[in-house]
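Good morning C.,

I know you're traveling, so I'll keep this short. The sequence:
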Amino acid sequence: MSLSNLRHRRAAYLASFLNLFLGGAILTGFAALYETGSAPGLSKDDRSALQTMALVIGGWGALIIAFGTAATLSLTVQQREKEIALLKAAGALPRQIRRMIMAETGILLVAAAIPAVPAGLGVGHGMLAMLKSSHQVSHGVDFKFGATTLAMGLGDIVAAALVAAIATGRRAAKQSTAASLVAAATEDAGMSRKRKIGAVVLILLGLDDAVMTATLMKNEGYDTMEIAGQACILTGIGLALLAPVLIRITAAVLGPLMRRSGGYLAEAELRRHSRQAAGVLMPVILFVSLANGALYEQFIQDDANRALHVAVSADDKSVQTLSFLVTAMIALFAAVVVANIAVSSTLHRRREFGQRRLIGDTPGEVRRALSWETCAILVAGLVFGTLAALVGVIPFSYARTGDFLPDQGLGVFLAVGAGIIVLTFAACLGAARRAMRVSALAAING
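The tokens, ready to paste straight into the viewer:
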């Protein structure tokens, strides 16, 4: 059954495979830096530079990658609620449903780990070469890639995927047959109490880090920047967990504008497909919050050093490298997650698109309605992602300059916004064009 599901839903599971592969490659590459820094005979500075970079990026990267992987796996199972309900009606037991989802995840993990190992080897080599060229690590440091690297890098992604599969499988197995059929038909966007509590706790922890940044950590050097970064990450993940609620709020706020501009059908579809829209919104919020937070904090730090005529030290260079590597890693992974979920969600609606074409909608009208839905998702992502970024940026600006609002301008925000807008529109509309290549009757018949 698991192998049949993987073959039948290649597009949906390809998204999960790509996330696991990319996450495994990134984490394995930085785990190799840690093993390289653990080798005997290294100087204290070389060991500190390598292990600090590996732990900071690997630690937060593991959390972000785990979140993205869980979101993709959860969306894949949500798209199969009707199928799972029919399996239960045919006699499948809850433990068999859980076993099926775990088996599918295990197959994806094995398939993703095979190419992730050589890709991680290349990432680790490239990072070490970059550190040597910028004189942050001695040229005599030899690259290490062994059992420790594989255990740390692949172990993180395996743990993240299995936890996501257990949670998703438990929810799918626990739901009754009737409830599964109703959820599949109505796209109910309700959230569990545990998810709501987790989101609130993460947001409160982020706000606590923000207060610490502006008060207790005001004159603590780069530790202040680290705590401010944590504020962005925790708040961004907390808001992303609330994505189903946020998408409904956005639909209610933008509803009058969408109806006046001919997007009344798009508004109705956005409410009906709020769970799938929330799946796209989650990585958008993460991308906007973390990219803006990391870049603005680094630019504030650099400008403050120049204003105080502080010479750039080796520590400054290391922190700059960390900031830009974190941003690059987040941007790459979040971009892949956004594209994967957007394509998977859009292709899943090919039957709906076929029905709309049969009642008179042209392909252009279908794409126009989808564009309105994508606009609403992007507005929500930019607004709430920016709020999460400001939770870290505002207190950090106050701690370093005495002003709450940074004077770096809107250049970074506009660049980040333009990138996510282009990516999301390209993924959604490209997938819609592909979904409508077949005739409407063929789309309805599957």
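Safe travels,
E.
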